[in-house]
Amino acid sequence: MNPDLERLHPYPFEKLKTLFTGLPASDKSPIALSIGEPKHPSPDFVQQVLRDNSALLARYPTTAGIPELSQAIADWLKQRFHLNSVDPAGQVLPVNGTREALFAFTQAVIDRQRQPLVLMPNPFYQIYEGATLLAGGEPVYLPCTDATGLQPDFDAVSEDTWIRTQLLFICTPGNPTGATLSLSQLKALIQLADKYDFVIASDECYSEIYRDKPPAGLLQACAALGRDDYRRCVVFHSLSKRSNLPGLRSGFVAGDREILAGFLRYRTYHGCAMPIHHQLASIAAWQDEAHVAHNRALYREKFDAVLDILGGPLKVSAPSAGFYLWPKTPISDEAFAKRLQAEQNVTVLPGRYLSRTVNGKNPGSNRVRMALVAPLEECIEGATRIKALLDTL
Fold first, then answer.
1. CATH assignment of 58-288, among 3.40.640.10, 3.90.460.10, 3.10.310.10, 3.40.50.2300
2. What's the mean pLDDT in 93-111?
3. Which of 256, 393, 280, 277 is CA-nearest to residue 336?
4. How far apart are CA 366 and CA 164, in angstroms?
5. Dihedral (C-alpha) 65, 68, 70, 75: value to the nearest 10 degrees?
6. pLDDT, tens digit, for every residue of 263-292?
7. Is the entire prediction scored with pTM above 0.90?
């Protein structure tokens, strides 16, 4: 077996299962605020496309996908991020969701013979770390704290670290923080990538769930710098959160033409082509914004209701984007999650399960992640139960 498999950390939900082992059964109905799986209805018109084209299951799809999907994605990117041009044939690659793509991309771009460093936010989506370890890289965790605006302080990274960096993961909006990087911050990162010759992988799968202002994107920063080649820059987008289609497993990678050419070659051997009827359904989803606006309104309503209940007793505020709350806890995050499960049958994820301890500090300690994905009434009930626990602490 690959010895690097032994370097993988248990997944957060494995740790959560262990934490809850032995807890007595509750007489209250379960409310899960731990997993970021969208629960809003999938668009009817997307489901109809799937039904109408089920006969295409008889055909093998190609890894590059059908040209119509790449064109729809290119059109969406240009409209959403104010880009001058996107070549659908060379700067867009459909993928089976961002999770698979983030992992595979890391394997394709890392040169393990050069003692590579891979920088990532801390807390983080655990795929960044696992992909790095299995590619032979060394993760470097950049703390995201209140003092840094819940995004990494890139000015604190040493030059020696930048010199060895091959890949920088950014997540904007962040999971679990909801914090976004500004256009000026993204421009500065592109200049660092030019100076030290590393690739930026921007995970933007929460970009369409925002409260007020659409978050900036990495390709948008490239365009603002006059760089339509998107050199050293790639972005990852998905229909899972934007369109409530996590089971469709549909997203895309876009950016640097040379990098995507190599990634396409890797994926051809990987065997991960998207089914054709999924591609047609994806075209329909990328070409419609009305359902996305409705989706945002549903999340906004839930945030407002939940924060009205928890805003006083808990240190929590609305994020700029995404569907998570990242509150501070009055006791340790593990103890809080365990008591909440035992006493109220509400599941949240301890923040330390999404972070790593560096220099004796874990930025996820004394925080929990709450995913407001359940229906409004269930989120309100969950918030009410959380408040009931807080009243006893």
1. 3.40.640.10
2. 96
3. 393
4. 32
5. -170
6. 999 999 988 999 999 999 999 999 999 999
7. yes
